[in-house]
Write a structure and sequence with these properties.
- The structure is a single chain.
- Strands 2-1-3-4-6-5 form a 6-stranded parallel beta sheet, sandwiched between helices. A 6-stranded parallel beta sheet has the order 9-8-7-10-11-12, sandwiched between helices.
- Helices cover 40% and strands 15% of the residues.
- The protein has 3 domains: 162 residues, Thiamin diphosphate (ThDP)-binding fold, Pyr/PP domains (Rossmann fold), CATH 3.40.50; 152 residues, TPP-binding domain (Rossmann fold, 3-Layer(aba) Sandwich), CATH 3.40.50.1220; 228 residues, 3-Layer(aba) Sandwich (Rossmann fold).
- It is built from 22 helices and 18 strands.
- Bound molecules: thiamine diphosphate (TPP) and magnesium ion.
- The site of magnesium ion has 10 residues, from helix 16.
Length: 587
């Protein structure tokens, strides 16, 4: 007998799903049975925690532009999926969550593990969350969950009571009150109307100092962004998720923006007279031009994201690449190259500053140095993920990406614990490419260590076995320690900030991986080289100095004052910080 669960799996395959990230439980056992019967036509990948399953599904979407699928049991399993679903919502990724539920006859009875899942998912998956209560309903619920996830780039959720999973599959009968859905979705190519393009071109052509800001939405539009920027004599800044969209080696790419950003991006936004924003939801308005100082044009595929961070004069709904291609013939060549030359000079100087900062000693290791030395050694086609913590500062600033690299980060949600699951999903999607994850010790202890066990379970199936985890072991929740000092004016609060030390390298050995410790500067380059030459996963533990400040590109007087006050209020690391900050600032 073909069950509802068998039909579900059949339909997932028809939607092109090759892999599901999920964890079992009695609420979802019917589906597990069907997955087992489906053999190797579709794979279940088992992480250590449902949160990781949802991050993996989101990572799959981020690395492939396909729908990611995760699965969990009723109650606690479903609850554990939430963070990954919010990650997808915040970064506009299509994922489908499939959750078990208690049998229909028990619902409303405070049964064990009974959670009102429709309410639980109502916020995160508000675009589509549905419980399947009879077999003939399943087909359209699956079809809609996929189509809506893809069309709106959102998480959606299918809830399946355990008894329904075991019923005989049924197509909807041809009668009143039934729904007859079909498969498939192909994204349209969206280009704004001709009049709007003309209005946008007028704004851009009249600019003398044009700044371009790109985000994740520009990741397939690198060439077009460059052509438009060349025409306008503009510089290009990259929000964090837009980092892989253009190589950092280009002379007028100013790099990151915001707290993690660069001085040339800060200055370009401060001094520009025109802003062109492409596919970005970059949230920190204080790093964009002051209102009224620049005229603005924005391109986004999602109208909800338009004129949200800066009041734009022209708001274009469109796909980045074809919209920029349609705009190009309307743009005049800017013959005055002074603005462009200023930007290039600032960028060149900034790379020198970063090099000097990276080459300063740390106690024992200046983390910037590791990222700096890694840049020229990054394998082509490397898959990168970076967690939330100070590593994202060094990743954003110091790592010089070239064309072809793929990268993922939890941007909108900025959740700790995403980098490891993302990297695992990346390896399943591209098993012949090397992967690297940059993770703080806090994020490692939160869930990275557990997901290394998942790597141990699967890595031998990956054609290129290189899965390299860089752990910044600073024994501190360092990013927040700095936030407490600079944004709150409070000294470091050891009870909330100190982390227990742990031997990440020894743990790697326990799992059969290579484990390296970088605790002296002279070990940095040889360790990076051995890691890249290895034929198995590796953990590189960087004994990182927590007192090297992740300096913002610009410090307000208030931030500087709060910072000094924080140190004077008895910060346990005050003297070390003053020494390290002075060295960084002199650089
Ligand atoms: C799930 C979650 N909890 C808490 C935070 C707040 N937070 C942001 S960065 C950070 C510290 C990260 O520490 P670690 O991983 O050790 O990296 P470090 O900053 O020390 O390099 C914290 C607690 C968060 N972003 N996500
Ligand atoms: Mg840390």
């Amino acid at each position: 007998m073909k069950t509802v669960s068998d039909f579900l799996i059949e339909r997932l395959k028809a939607w092109g799903v090759a892999r599901i990230y999920g964890y079992p439980g009695d609420g979802i056992n019917g589906v597990m049975g069907a997955l087992s019967r489906a053999g190797d036509t579709i794979r279940l990948i088992q992480p250590r925690h449902e949160e990781a399953a949802a991050f993996m599904a989101c990572g799959h979407a981020k690395f492939t532009d396909e729908v990611g699928v995760c699965l969990g049991t009723s109650g606690p399993g479903a609850i554990h999926l939430l963070t990954g679903l919010y990650d997808a919502k915040a970064d506009h990724q299509p994922i489908v969550a499939i959750c078990g539920q208690k049998p229909r006859r028990a619902l409303g009875g405070e049964f064990q593990q009974e959670v009102d899942l429709l309410s639980l998912f109502k916020d995160v998956a508000h675009e589509y969350v549905e419980m399947v209560t009879v077999p003939a309903q399943l087909r359209h619920v699956v079809d809609r969950a996929f189509r809506i996830a893809l069309a709106h780039r959102v998480p959606t959720c299918i809830i399946l009571p355990s008894d329904v999973q075991e019923l005989k599959a049924k197509e909807p009968p041809h009668e009143h009150g039934t729904v007859h859905s079909g498969l498939g979705y192909s994204a349209p190519i969206v280009i704004p109307g001709a009049d709007d393009l003309v209005r946008a071109a007028e704004v851009l052509n009249s600019g003398k100092r044009v700044a371009v800001l790109i985000g994740a939405g520009a990741r397939h539009a690198g060439d077009e962004v460059v052509r438009v920027a060349d025409r306008l004599g503009a510089g290009i800044a990259k929000a964090l998720l837009g980092k892989p969209a253009l190589p950092d080696t280009m002379p007028y790419v100013t790099g990151g923006i915001g707290m993690l950003g660069t001085r040339p991006s800060y200055e370009m936004m401060r001094d520009c007279d025109t802003l062109l924003m492409v596919g970005s939801g970059f949230p920190y308005a204080e790093f964009l031009p002051e209102e009224g100082h620049a005229r603005g044009v924005q391109i986004d595929i999602d109208p909800r994201m338009l004129s949200l961070r800066y009041p734009m004069e022209v708001n274009l709904v469109g796909d980045a690449a074809p919209t920029l291609r349609a705009l190009l013939p309307l743009l005049q060549q800017n013959e005055d190259d002074r603005w462009r030359r200023t930007i290039e000079r600032n960028v060149a100087e900034w790379w020198q500053t970063l090099e000097k900062r990276a080459m300063q000693d740390g106690e024992p290791i200046n983390p910037q140095r590791v990222f700096w030395e890694l840049s020229p050694r990054l394998p082509e086609n490397v898959l990168l993920s970076c967690d939330t913590g100070t590593s994202v500062h060094w990743y954003s600033r110091d790592l010089k990406l070239r064309a072809g690299v793929l990268a993922a980060h939890s941007g909108g949600l900025a959740s700790m614990g995403a980098a490891m699951p993302y990297a695992i999903a990346a390896k399943f999607a591209y098993p012949d490419r090397p992967a690297m994850a940059f993770v703080g010790d806090g994020a490692m202890q939160m869930n990275g260590l557990n997901e290394l066990i998942t790597v141990a379970k699967y890595w031998q199936q990956w054609k290129d076995p290189r899965f390299i985890v860089f752990v910044l072991n600073n024994r501190d929740l360092n990013m927040v320690t700095w936030e407490q000092r600079v944004l709150e004016g409070d000294p470091k609060f050891p009870a909330s900030q100190d982390l227990p030390d742990f031997s990440y390298a020894a743990y790697a050995h326990l799992l059969g991986f290579d484990g390296f410790v970088i605790d002296e500067a002279r070990k940095i380059v040889p360790t990076l080289e051995s890691t890249l030459a290895t034929r198995r996963p590796a953990v590189v533990e960087i004994v990182a100095d927590p007192n090297i400040p992740p300096l913002p590109p610009h410090t307000t007087a208030k931030q500087a004052k709060d910072y000094l006050l924080a140190l004077m209020k008895g910060d346990p690391d005050a003297m070390k910080i003053i020494r390290a900050s002075a060295k960084q600032l002199f650089a």
